[in-house]
Amino acid sequence: MKAIFLSDAHLKREKDENYQRLLHLFEALNADSEKPLESRSESVEPETVQRVNPRIDHLFILGDFFDFWFSRGSVIYPEYRVMVRELAALGQRGVTVHFLEGNHDFFLADYFTERLGFEVLTDWGEWHDGQRRILFSHGDTVDLQNRKYLFLRRVLRSRAVYRLQKVLPLRMLWAAARISSEASQGRSREQAERLAEKMHAFASHKIGEGFNAVVLGHCHYPRLREWSASQGKVATVTLGDWIKDFSYLYYAEGRFQLLTEPSRT
Predict the structure, then answer these.
(1) Range of the structural domain that residue 157 is part of
(2) Which residues of the chain fall below pLDDT 50?
(3) What is the pTM of this model?
(4) What is the Cα–Cα distance from 125 to 219, expressed in whole angstroms?
């Protein structure tokens, strides 16, 4: 059983570097060739190239894949069409796609479940491949001290907002989302590292509840930690992003590798 976990691509424009690097990864996964994927390992020297099998069984997208998402029937934001086609092709090849909603992209089920048959989860997911019991989430609800954000999250995902975005013109929603995206400020690397530490502490608690691995996004800080516990080898992972890190987690035969998609320039 082989899987890839990734999060926080924050896709906006097809010409952007993060979009192109991720598109290249999906094209390789969709190719008929058995040529191994080549990525740099996050846990060894940067020049070390890791080769992994492109044939995966599961793709886990752990939130904020898109910088915003509003759709109506089959109509989606034009810049996303190419990427959505690649995702659909993966599904047609037999890859099971699991979508976690993030704090930038939610109300995903209307398109990705109803039209593509993908699993869409709003908060948490659990996967057991016969070797490991893995808990996964975007991770934006881990920091319970951030009460203002948690309140805003409940409002934005409410039934009232869902109904409202169904009647407003899509072009208006897309324009507002673009403006909001450009105005928002990303956290610093130091802030990302502090949040990652909170997430690993939370994940370690979940390991104590019997999980073999916990995988989270949201903090934009890639880190894989592994150790031995009563249930065997365990891991906590924060995935990093596709803005600065271009990172993803590869899982095969019970083993995790935190990898970085190399630049194509």
Answers:
(1) 2-260
(2) none
(3) 0.92
(4) 18
Q: How many Å is the maximal CA-CA distance in the chain?
A: 54
Under DSSP, the state recorded for 79 is G
CATH number (domain holding residue 60): 3.60.21.50
Question: Cα–Cα–Cα angle for 245, 246, 249, nearest 5°?
Answer: 100
Q: Is residue 265 in some structural domain?
A: no
- Which one, of 5, 44, 263, 247, lies nearest residue 129 by Cα? 5
Provide the mean pLDDT of the chain: 90
Domain count along the chain: 1
Structure letter (DSSP) for residue 133: E
CB neighbours (10 Å) of residue 52?
Answer: 17
Instruction: Report if residue 199 sits inside a domain.
Output: yes
Query: DSSP strand E in the chain: where?
Result: 2-6, 37-41, 49-52, 58-62, 96-100, 119-121, 124-128, 133-137, 213-216, 223-229, 232-238, 247-252, 255-260
Nearest CA to 211 out of 141, 132, 137, 138 is that of: 132
